[in-house]
Amino acid sequence: MSFRYLSVCSGIEAASVAWKPLGWECAGASEIDKFPRAVLQHRLGAVPVDDDHRWQPGQNFTPLFGDFTKIEAHHVGPVDLLVGGTPCFPEGTMIASTRGLIPIEAVRVGDEVLTHEHRFRRVLRTGSKMAETVEVTGQGHYGFVTTANHPFLARQKMGQSTRVDGRAVRKTWITDADWVAAEHMEGKHWACVSRWPEMPVPQITVIGNETVPSLPVRDLMMIAGAYLGDGWIRSNERRGAVMFGLNPSKLDALRHAFDAYGKWHSSQERTSVRVTICSRPLARWLAENFGTGAANKRVPMWVLGHPEREALLQGYLLTDGGKVQFGHRATTISPDLALTMRMLAVSCGYSSSVGFSERPSTHQIEGRTVNQSDTYTVTFGTSARSSFEDGGFRWQRVRSVQPTGRVERVYDLEVEEDHSYVADGICVHNCQSFSIAGKRLGLDDPRGNLTLEFFALAERVRPSWIVWENVPGVLSHDDGRTFGTVLGLMGECGFRWAYRVLDAQYVRVGRFGRAVPQRRRRVFLVGYSGTADINPAAVLFDRESLRGNPAPRREAGERPAPTIAARTRGGGGLGTDFDCDGGLIAGTEWPASVAPTLNAHFGEKQGLEDQHIRGGGGLFVPGSCQPADRADAQGDQYHCGRRPDANYPARRRVRWGWHH
Length: 660
Fold this sequence. Notes:
20% of the residues lie in helices and 30% in strands. The chain is α+β, with helices and mostly antiparallel strands. The longest helix is centred in the middle third of the chain and has 14 residues. It is globular and about 80 Å long.
């Protein structure tokens, strides 16, 4: 039987491009996204199968699975190698924190997030996984995607018909707030935050001989609102301006704010009046806080608790949309602006909702064909027919809960004390199962996400080899603890391992002399669990695969180029992403307290980048667990390993509910 490999999180299956020419057999591929699945069916002849599929000797097709967490040994038969690249940095909804409104994937352990108690509390754990989802639709959100069991803070209006003194009457009351699973939210009211904490306002900064715009805060907020509604920025290294396209009545309504600044002028265009405020500091401040481009604008979190926030809302309503029967309606192509403008409206006492409309990609305007994007409609109303204000929340009605029919990446946080957080302005609870699992496993590491499932699959199919691939940032994530846990999982499954950072643009083999024409740096972790005396590091340091052109020397210099600093408190090292702390350190002296990470360059000392080698950096010997026998070796640290010690707890298989 030929060498057989199983590929999960396959994408368009680069593994088969490399391995099928070697005569290897693909035991199966796994992918949930529609487009990659179509590519796999077209290019590999992969055949979609369900849970009833069973491998048979002599099978002459490649089975295509969906969710790889459901793959069992009888689905694929004997497997020699398991390959996959599980995600570590999920994307998600906007979370309210002391750093502002940030995507859930950017939330780190130790961040402080807003809870249902209207206070900030620390994040204890983060995690992600694949799960079936539902879409919760109601006032305040066009479609909140989550797992069916994820709890929302909810209340419900109740009613009962009865008779009093012979007359028919309708008694109504509202239940106390409680945590309700998403699947049971239909007809209930979720909690949209209306009382936000007051936060510091970012100052307008100046560079060189620039002058700070001097105008009252209320007028500044109104200008910011008008910019969100119908403004844009023109800026370069020397000049900057904020521009608006207004009709005469809108100009009259905003004139007092423009006059408060002073330096502005207007010009009559064919269909509007163009207003220009000449101020590079103001343009920069608006861009940094409110975004640029129609699809990227948003309301920053500090506005939501600002005493003059109604002025910003007024400026926006003056420049976008128009009046309707029950209030005002505005349209945007930015989902972030739609949701954050709804949060602002609720904080100002409005009952606000967001709707979504799918649009054709093009549209005819005055005989011209123009591109068109999907739109989000924000409604601002004063009617309280189906919502009510109480306790710092606007309680708005959920209309429907529908299964999406999809398996998606979903996310969750565990928060100290309150065990809740605010997602897209709505109060949610971390799942109880998440909290329990976190106490046992620590879900800020890969045990709490899809990586756990990857190694669980390895235990089921028992391959001799594992190849796990990820972005270099995994080395420094959470000060190296995340990757340390991955290595622990590798050891728990009985694999000896080695890892290295490789860049596709420099890797060559005989059959593929041109390699990949793009920069694609990835961490490759290789494990071997067989009985033969094989060192997994040999796979990563094959000289034939590293005979391509070295990285270009882009700029002459007398000493090594500045590099990213090592962190002595754990993980990462020189050459890894500096996403946790940020910054560059020029002219770092060697030897460093933390040896540099492995890289694609193959210089005098195996595994080090050329600049580190010339600087006298520490030597890695990936195939050994003994100090190097080289006289010039420094910092005996190795990118190899075996089964971990008792500090790693036994792996437990858990499932939980998460947010999209």
